[in-house]
Write a structure and sequence with these properties.
Blueprint lengths: L2 H12 L3 H28 L4 H30 L8 H8 L1 H36 L4 H24 L4 H7 L5 H11 L4 H9 L2 H17 L2 H7 L2 H39 L1
Helix pairs in contact: 1-12, 2-3, 2-12, 3-4, 3-5, 3-7, 3-12, 5-6, 5-8, 7-8, 10-11
């Protein structure tokens, strides 16, 4: 897999319905922005209800995931040259609320225990270093920094294995949420490093985004800069999402080939 080829496939796929891809992403971001601003405003006016606003924010997160599923399904349909509109993702998301939230919950169930183990191991390593190298504080700080960095990277790699869960569910919404999460892990087995390299290939775009954001913040009042800071994201996110889907489609095909080869070898042995 070459990053440039996957990105080229993504651009070709986007060209099938670029307007719907950009518009759906814009509406998605706009919905999140309005909800966030509304909650922030109301919480500032209705004080003394911290517990209530915490619950509301949790519900907002749960609401985001079905919409995220809707976006994933929209991009799957665009890639397969199926007809969608700018608002199709809302219907897709609302029609599969329980399963999309189920995917989110299943990912948490898998990631949280692994993350706890990683941090416990990190803590034990740092505790041992502190006891051994206590007189040399600089050494302790440097080693601790590297251990925590390694732990953070490990957790990222653990989480990334479930990145394709929504794409899996979008292609087969009859599948159980747990099965979608497990299939994502299976598809990315042995490919996490390659996938991370693909994501890192967008680093130039992120640098450009930060430069544009800086220019906006310098030249516009804060109230306008916050609004316009979303503009680069509206155009960049569709490119990244479609690239992710194209890689998922390639990795899924590779897995199918591996299964076929394995089955043929098994038949030959018999």
């Amino acid at each position: 897999m070459k990053c440039s080829l996957t990105r080229k496939e993504a651009r070709t796929a986007l060209s099938k319905n670029l307007v719907a891809a950009i518009a759906s992403n814009f509406i998605f971001i706009l919905i999140l922005l309005i909800l966030n601003l509304g909650i922030t405003y109301l919480s500032s006016k209705l004080t003394g209800l911290d517990a209530l606003w915490t619950v509301v924010k949790v519900l907002l997160v749960l609401f985001i995931f079905p919409l995220g599923y809707g976006i994933a399904k929209t991009y799957v349909k665009i890639a397969n040259n199926e007809k969608v509109t700018a608002t199709s993702f809302i219907g897709f998301g609302l029609s599969t609320i329980s399963k999309s939230i189920g995917v989110f919950v299943n990912i948490l169930i898998k990631v949280i225990p692994a993350s706890v183990v990683v941090f416990l191991v990190s803590y034990l390593i740092i505790f041992g270093v502190v006891n051994i190298a206590h007189p040399i504080q600089d050494v302790v700080k440097i080693i601790s920094m590297f251990v925590y960095l390694a732990a953070a990277i490990a957790i990222v790699f653990i989480t990334i294995r479930y990145s394709f869960s929504l794409f899996v569910l979008a292609e087969d919404d009859t599948m159980k949420a747990k099965d979608a999460v497990n299939k994502s892990k299976e598809i990315l087995n042995g490919k996490v490093g390659e996938y991370v390299i693909l994501l890192l290939s967008f680093i130039g775009w992120f640098i450009l985004y930060e430069v544009i954001l800086l220019v906006i913040q310098i030249n516009l009042p804060s109230i306008y800069s916050d609004l316009f800071s979303f503009i680069p994201t509206i155009f960049l996110t569709p490119y990244i999402l479609m690239t992710q889907y194209c890689y998922y489609d390639e990795a899924k095909a590779d897995l199918q080939v591996e299964r076929t080869d394995s089955k043929e070898e098994s038949n030959e042995e018999e």
